[in-house]
Specification:
Helices cover about 65% and strands about 10% of the residues. It contains 13 helices and seven strands.
């Protein structure tokens, strides 16, 4: 073992010995569709302590550590079988009985799966270790199946703020990638732009959430108008009509807002997914390119080296394709904002009618003034948020076209 690999001396017991490898090291391997190892790079051999002959044609699970909950691997295989890449923390065992932690990124290839692993160091890694320890305890205590353990892990990730394994993996790789501090010079501007895009899209989501909250606050106002109209009997007939018109127009507007933030097909959700997956693919591509750059010249034509190069290029193209989508989706948002602002103008007309009725009935009932004030506040805030949203959509389109 060379000087790049450090062995912790915290314990004389080999079962408690942690192998810590260099920050710039990348452990890579490739398997067939069944998980049988077909390729392992020099760093994999060095850190794990297995010879290349012992690794090739062996099942990948030979380095599975008993501290790993089986639900983690269940979810990994479920994602991989569906064609989705996976990124999660894994504790592996060495041939001598020690262990080492990695952030493992596994992607599908034409003939199986390719994995790249880096040394973890972030707070999310520490949080994940706690989750795994709790999950392993539940698994043993309740005799959970792999599927049940996987379902429990998803629940725990949701409690930690990650709606899916993919969202967790994207966050984990981004945090570790940045903590690692190694960014290819030719990609630095692209990564910077992607971070800016992600921040702008997040701001846009906040604006839409504010608009949504505004709708929630005035949702009951048409009902209040109808109640007031009922109390006034004949004198309130106009208020009943105004209430119906406002309710219908507000529902139409609310539906348009849904096109922006719908969890499945909303424009902002699609944009954030595109930039997150584009950045994720580009980060993985860089890791594979680094691993390929460390291949000895004599080994450049081997199957493993060729696989690293080809998959790096494939992921880079996938990243570009996802990022191109951002500008395309972003172009539709100003149109939605203009439609929403036209409807705000329509709601303003209805609000004006309320003011007319308020002036006509001032001596009869003063409750209408409070309703008008709340509607006016909602209209002003929504109009301002829509203007900001449209401006940020233009920024997204401009920055997205620069990628």
């Amino acid at each position: 073992m060379n000087a790049m690999t450090k062995i912790s001396s915290a314990s004389a017991d080999s079962s408690a010995t942690e192998v810590r490898f260099a920050n710039e090291s990348i452990i890579t391997s490739a398997t067939d569709p069944r998980g049988v190892i077909q390729f392992a790079n020099e760093k994999f051999v060095e850190v794990g302590g297995y010879s290349l002959e012992e690794l090739v044609n062996a099942p990948h699970k030979i380095m599975r550590h008993p501290d790993m909950p089986k639900g983690v691997f269940y979810l990994m295989w479920e994602c991989l079988k569906s064609g989705m890449p996976v990124c999660t923390y894994v504790k592996n065992k060495t041939k001598s009985g020690g262990y080492y932690w990695v952030l493992a990124v596994v992607t599908q290839t034409e003939n199986g799966f390719l994995s790249a692993r880096i040394r973890p160091s972030t707070e999310l890694f520490e949080t994940t270790k706690e989750i795994y320890a709790t999950l392993l305890d539940e698994e043993k205590r309740e005799n959970l199946t792999a599927e049940q353990c996987g379902a429990r892990l998803l629940e725990m990730l949701k409690d930690a703020g990650y709606p899916s394994l993919e969202a967790y993996g994207i966050e984990a790789l981004d945090l570790e990638f940045k903590a690692r501090g190694i960014i290819a010079p030719d990609l630095s501007s692209s990564f910077l732009l992607m971070d800016e895009l992600a921040e702008i899209i997040s701001d846009m989501q906040d604006l839409v959430n504010s608009i949504e909250q505004g709708f929630e606050r005035v949702r009951g106002e048409p009902v209040n108008l109808r109640i007031l109209a009922g109390r006034l009997e004949g004198a309130g007939a106009a208020l009943g009509t105004i209430s119906q018109n406002y309710d219908a127009m507000a529902k139409e507007m609310h539906s348009l807002v849904g096109r922006l933030h719908d969890p499945e097909n909303g424009s902002l959700v699609q944009m954030y997914s595109a930039v997150s997956q584009g950045r994720w693919s580009m980060q993985i591509a860089q890791l594979l390119n680094e691993a390929h750059s460390n291949v000895a010249p004599d080994d450049a034509a081997t199957d493993g080296a060729v696989l690293l190069k080809e998959h790096h290029e494939r992921l880079h193209q996938r990243s570009r394709a996802r990022l191109i989508e951002i500008s395309s989706i972003g172009k539709s948002i100003p149109d939605i904002c203009r439609s929403l602002r036209r409807r705000i103008n329509g709601l303003d007309v209805v609000k004006l009618l309320c003011k007319v009725e308020s002036g006509r009935m001032r001596d009869v009932d003063s409750g209408l003034d409070g309703i008008i004030a709340r509607l006016e506040n909602f209209h002003d805030n929504t109009d301002r948020h829509l203007a900001d949203l449209s401006a940020k959509a233009s920024q997204v389109t401009q920055k997205g076209s620069a990628l």
